[in-house]
Specification:
By secondary structure, the protein is mainly α. The protein has one domain (2-67). It contains four helices and no strands. Helix 1 runs antiparallel to helix 3 and helix 3 (19-40) runs antiparallel to helix 4. The chain starts with a helix and ends in a 13-residue tail after the last helix. This is CPBP family intramembrane metalloprotease. The chain crosses the membrane at residues 21-39, 45-65.
Length: 80
């Protein structure tokens, strides 16, 4: 159930990212959700590991998007 919820939460990526890259986070979130669901079924240590992996991923992606001049793979973050 968590894997499907994780997948559904990440579907709005198609509205933010260019179409050629939108499929990557959608399919990645489906598999990532299944992996995170398995990790979280292992108790508090699995939950903390899943949380660490998720934060590490988003931290790395944020770094790649903000530090490169042309954006990472042509993706630029939204400016507020």
């Amino acid at each position: 159930m968590f894997g499907l919820f994780f997948f559904a939460v990440h579907i709005p990526a198609v509205f933010i990212l260019p179409k050629k890259f939108a499929l990557l986070p959608i399919t990645g979130s489906l598999f990532g959700g299944l992996i995170f669901a398995y990790l979280q079924s292992q108790g508090i240590s699995g939950f903390l590991l899943a949380l660490f992996i998720h934060l590490l991923f988003w931290g790395t992606l944020h770094y790649l998007l903000t530090k490169s001049i042309d954006g990472f793979l042509g993706i630029t973050p939204l400016k507020r």
